[in-house]
Design a protein that fits this description.
three-stranded antiparallel β-sheet, 2 helices, six-stranded mixed β-sheet, rod-shaped, alpha+beta
Length: 183
């Protein structure tokens, strides 16, 4: 048997140690890269979720403001925001946006933006149109120009450490009465 193998011998201890060291470096690099990818995926998820909360709030309020014939801004950041309009069949619609308090896992005081719709004084119920809303980054104000008024909505949301903010300028379709009246 020894003759057939000729001068071949097995791996030396040094060769095995070098192979183990190279394998360990590759394994550690793969683990670091995997951890980085998991953290990046979590950050992207949080950024996306915060952006979606801002977009949902902007969508719902925009949809209702363009219908509104009466816009009533509340005293605190423009909330509660009450929008009223009458359909051609004399059905009266009223939508009220309010901010409910919520706390995230870090103890931040945030808002849950809620929408309640009324048709001819009958409530259709409440729905949540945005969560993780940042009060300091959120407001509804009237933008009064000489001939046209619009609602400027600024919405901010924060999920974990990711924050998204957007501003919408919404023009009602018809003549709008603004409450309280600006003098």
């Amino acid at each position: 048997m020894k003759r057939r193998m000729g001068g071949r011998r097995g791996l030396t201890m040094v060769e095995i140690m070098v192979a183990l060291a190279v394998s360990a470096v590759i394994l550690i690099g793969a683990l670091v890269l995997t951890r980085y990818m998991i953290v990046a995926a979590d950050d992207n998820r949080d950024k996306t979720f915060a952006s979606l909360q801002v977009q949902y709030a902007g969508f719902w309020i925009s949809e209702d403001v363009v219908q509104a014939q009466i816009v009533e801004l509340g005293d605190y950041h423009g909330l509660p925001l009450t929008l009223t309009w009458t359909e051609p069949d004399d059905t009266v619609n009223e939508v009220v946006y309010t901010a409910g308090n919520m706390t995230d896992v870090f103890g931040n005081n945030l808002w849950r933006l809620e929408r309640e719709q009324w048709i001819d004084s009958v409530s259709l119920g409440k729905s949540v149109v945005g969560e993780y809303i940042v009060p300091a980054s959120t407001e509804c104000v009237r933008n009064a120009h000489e001939f046209v008024s619009s609602l400027v909505l600024r919405v901010g949301a924060k999920v974990d450490t990711s924050e998204a903010v957007n501003t919408y300028e919404i023009h009602p379709r018809s003549f709008t009465q603004w409450l309280p009246e600006v003098t």
